[in-house]
Amino acid sequence: MRAIGFSTGALALGDFRCGLELSSRHGLPAVELSALRYHELKPLVDALTDLKLDGFRYVSLHAPSRYEEKEEPTVASLAMKAAERGIPVVVHPDAIHDAACWRQFGRMLLIENMDKRKPAGRTVQELEHFFELLPDAGFCFDIGHARQFDPSMTEAELLLRAYAERLSQVHMSEVNSFSRHERLSFLSYFSCRRVAAWIPENVPIILEAPVQPGEIEHEVRFAMDCLTPPPLRDKDWVAPASSLLPARGD
């Protein structure tokens, strides 16, 4: 079975312990420890020795998405403590100021493709610059970012083709026009199916959609549906009832 789970920030914004506890309670096999804000990184890294991570098949850490250039050595040094424990570290390419800070991570560094608001890292050509600087880094493919940048999913397929050997993790969510993460929608279902064949079963999936505890299991099932191409041809296919989303309640 595919390893799938949530970012702790999606389940409990700013509270990695609560997000981790919810993930464990639902028996999810994968989790991403979220430290998207600079001030969240040190407390998370300091807690790694005490966190109960043994029950997960896959654990990653998302480094801060924004910080001052002078803070980069500190960010990289703290993140390395996770990498030394076998925890891959996801970084945004536009947050990389000095590649030398990250070169020591090797394959434990995962570079993520970006959404349309970012000035870099959205396309194969833009990401190639960063992979040249960090030739051993892996690739974290964000489906929502790719779909928002190019709804036809052409660039998404190009990314997966170009970096198939680097693909180490996938982020899934809907990304709206304001670049905010939302739950997967009926429309995103078809976009995900467009690239599902390019995502091997052994690549872990991390859901970034903010959900309430009662919505966790449904979002996981829906995501799994998105990544399971139906046996029929597209023109003959009728969406299963499980793909109809319940009211969001917000």
Q: What attributes does this structure have?
A:
250 residues; eight-stranded parallel barrel; two-stranded antiparallel sheet; 9 helices; disordered C terminus
Notes on the structure:
- The chain has a single domain, classed as Alpha-Beta Barrel (TIM Barrel).
- An eight-stranded parallel barrel has the order 1-2-3-4-5-6-7-10, surrounded by six helices.
- It is globular and about 40 Å long.
- The protein is built from nine helices and ten strands.
- It has 250 residues and is of the alpha/beta class.
Helix content: 25-40%
**Count of discrete alpha- or pi-helical segments spanning 4 or more residues:** 9
Give the strand content.
15-25%
Radius of gyration: 17 Å
Cα end-to-end separation: 32 Å
Main structural class? alpha/beta
Molecular shape: globular
Structurally, how many domains make up the residues?
A: 1
CATH architectural category: Alpha-Beta Barrel
- Widest sheet: strand order? 1-2-3-4-5-6-7-10
Mean pLDDT, all residues: 91
Could you name the CATH class?
Alpha Beta
Largest sheet: 8 strands, parallel, barrel
CATH fold title: TIM Barrel
Q: Would you report the number of β strands?
A: 10
Element-level helix/strand string: EHHEHEHEEHEHHEEEHEH
Which stretches are poorly predicted, pLDDT < 50 over at least 5 residues?
232-250
CATH superfamily: Divalent-metal-dependent TIM barrel enzymes
Summary, kept brief:
The chain has helices spanning 8-11, 16-25, 38-46, 72-83, 124-133, 143-149, 154-162, 186-195, 216-226, and strands spanning 4-7, 30-34, 58-62, 89-91, 109-112, 138-142, 167-172, 174-175, 181-182, 205-207.
